[in-house]
Amino acid sequence: MTRADNGRFAVPANRSDHEDRGPDPARAGLGGRPGPAARPGSARPDPLAGARCVLLDFDGPLCRFFAGPPGGPDSLAPGIADDLRALLGGLPELRARLAPLPDPHEVYRRTAAALRRDGQPEHPVVAAMRKRLDERELAAAGATAVPTPGAAGLLARLADRGVLLGVASNNSEAAIRVFLERAGMARWFEDGPVVGRPDDAGLMKPHPAVLRSALAYWPVRPDTCVLVGDSPADAAAAAAAGVAFCGYHREPAKRRRLRELPGAPPAVAELAELAPAGRVAVT
After folding, report:
1. Is the pLDDT of residue 143 over 70?
2. Which of 46, 71, 121, 138 is most buried when burial is the number of CB atoms within 10 A of its CB?
3. What confidence category does residue 280 fall into, taking pLDDT thresholds of 50, 70 and 90?
4. Residue 166 has pLDDT above 70, yes or no
5. Hey, which residues are catalytic here?
6. DSSP the chain
């Protein structure tokens, strides 16, 4: 069964948009520190309780950015990675080395690292790859990307608490803004930063530059903020920036991998588990 989300998308029906099932009590807590175990029948700890600001990664917590079209492949990412590798025609050894990678960001990042020369201008292949990646992401944002179930509800609950909201992502800022408008989510970020991929691929997460740029938008301490992300790179960037991390992933194995990172951060299966209504307002 599907339902309309903001009148623009059909996404899987999700009872938990309105119900609190709570995160794993053994993992919950700001800064990736285990929270107190819940007593039988008691409410489970909220990993975002007390946060003054919440930054969200884009692809994952807010949308399935590379979702395939109906009747097509489940994900556009491998095809985009192939598209980027096609630009390496004059560099067959590098192209062969990157052939197994299905993630277009990794293809771009590793290409930039391999072709970087200190004191030299950016290699034209890197510039061409970034331009192609921007184009493909913009196309996905305007057509095939779909909201993550529960994302709009989470943003509304956090806004009701008075939490400052921002986006810190390795995706193109232009594409992020197109999607947020299309999905009806842009209103929650009118007073917050939307920081996307830096021109320098070396400053993409896990480097903390994207998070630091977002945090500079507000007069807040990093230790009052939480990043909601879906990858070890997000967790590493948060740690380097002094920001707490809360993981989200719909796949159990990847969720377990997040929980096994240093500090045992919380990781939830559904966004409805975060900032449940009626809990711990920011003061």
Report:
1. yes
2. 46
3. very low
4. yes
5. 57
6. -EEEETTTEEEE--GGGS------TTT-SGGG---PPPPTTSPPPPTTTT-SEEEE-SBTTTEETTBPPTTS-SBSHHHHHHHHHGGGTT-HHHHHHHTT---HHHHHHHHHHHH--TTSPPPHHHHHHHHHHHHHHHHHHHHT-EEPTTHHHHHHHHHHHT-EEEEE-SS-HHHHHHHHHHTT-GGGGTTS-EE---SSGGGSTTSTHHHHHHHTTSS--GGGEEEEESSHHHHHHHHHHT-EEEEE-SSHHHHHHHHTSTT---EES-GGGSS-TTS----
